[in-house]
Structure formats: structure tokens, C-alpha cells
Amino acid sequence: WQGPQANGMPELHKLTPPLSVLQGKGFKVALVTDGRMSGASGKVPAAIHVSPEAAAGGPLAKVRDGDLIRLDAVAGTLAVLVPEDEWAQREAAVMSAEQRAADGRGLGRELFAGMRRNATTAEEGACTWL
Fold it and tell me: What would be the CATH architecture of the domain defined by 13-124?
């Protein structure tokens, strides 16, 4: 829930230090998000701007706790490692009304509610045409 329609794509670079610590302890970590980063992911593999975003019913809305995800930077692929039939039957999670309301308040976000509501995908530039 970090894409243009969800909360306007805040910078996520603060996630890399804790992920780097886990990586340094031997864990295999990566960041997969419909949000944005300035490119400061360091050694942590990152798949950013996944589109369409979860708030628009994109594939990240079908990912569940415990799912294994394969990020292959060489091949340029991202795959959730669940059986195809299970994936096809999964319903996309829906952002709760409470979370939508919370994402729309503070830091001047109230001013941009119409833009978030009409935003195109990150792949299309997260633009809004009112």
C-alpha cells in the first residue's frame, strides 16, 4: 500500500538500513514494493514501482505472509512461488477504509486526495489529469 493511489508514494529509503543489518546477519532479503525509492537501496536487491499497485488490485495485493518471492535481477523477473491454481483463486486484498483515511491525513495529504484518487500507475508516471 505504498503506490500513487494508496498514499502518494512516499520515499522508502529508510527501510534499507534495517534490511542491510538482516542481510549482514546472513538473511536473504529484498525489498518488493509498489512504492518508490531514490535508488539508495545499497546492497539490498529492490523491485520498486511494482505496477499496477496493490491499491489498484495489482499482484502485490495477492501476496500473503509466508509466500516465497523470487526476484531475479539478471532475468528481470519477479515471481510469487505458489502454485498457479492457488494464485488464480486468490482474491486481491483490499485496502481498509481506515487505512485509506489514515493515509490521507497529515503532512498536507488532504490537499492531494483528488490526485491520489485519479492517479495513473507508477509505470505510467503516477500522473493525474483532473
Answer: 3-Layer(bba) Sandwich (3.50)
